[in-house]
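Structure tokens
________________
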Amino acid sequence: MSSASRYTYLGPEGTFTEAALRTLPESATRELVPMVSVAAALDAVRNGEAGGALVPIENSVEGGITTTLDELAFGTPLMIYREVLLPIAFALLVRPGTKLSDVKTVTGHPAAQVQVRQWLTTHLPDAVWESAASNADGARLVQESRYDGAFAGEFAAPTYGLEPLATEIHDASNATTRFVLVGRPARMAAPTGADKTSAVFWLRDDHPGALLDLLQEFAIRGVNLMRIESRPTGQGLGQYCFSVDAEGHLTDRRVSETLLGLHRRCLKVRLLGSYPRADEIAPVVRRGASDEEFTAAADWLNRALDGRA
């Protein structure tokens, strides 16, 4: 099978990332390869060993997945082509015969700990938590008797010979994780009318109102920001870049002109792509921000230049 037909994901088998990947219709015709980390999954795409990688980028409880945000901001450029939203509920997986009173040590991905903290306090207040590379890796460690229990998807239990001691565990009942399918840069898909554009930008210099100046590029053109997060650049305290998701497609005039404005003002802008929104919700375009109104304004300016305004 060619590398283009291979998709990598944050493994091992039995992760929520694998479950999200399998919701994509094309996954049935792809070789799905688990990787030990987000970086490894993305590097396989960068190196031409895989045509795409599915990785988590944010969840509704903890926010952005910093490893993914940093890989997309600082690594060799990649592009987001689509997203997947997956409701998250955990199960406490244990070796057969284990009772709740036997569970003294538990493990899981660090993002899982945030989502089951209250349940742990109520049901296992004395259990010691140690983080694993992924929830499925935590299940593997329980299989190897290194921990008593792992918080993972219930669907991972058969893979590792475990059984769910408790299910539907979540401190927030509507917890959702967002995943993105990432590939090498290429021409973007056509707009659907319900799209999202992601980018990273770096301030040119630090001054009062510097971030406000850049946010106004979005505001004055009627572009709604769905997410904005600061990430350290590694060049010293106080040095940050900003990762954003905005409503709309790059072909929308309000979006393209916003990015042109950012490009003029910023030290650097990295476009991560325009892609369909998983929730298929079309944006509400404010008056004055539609393509037709941008075109009408440009026509007026051309007439003015010709003395016909």
User: Anything to note?
Assistant: The chain has a mean pLDDT of 94. The helical segments are 16-21, 38-46, 66-74, 110-123, 135-143, 210-219, 253-265, 291-305.
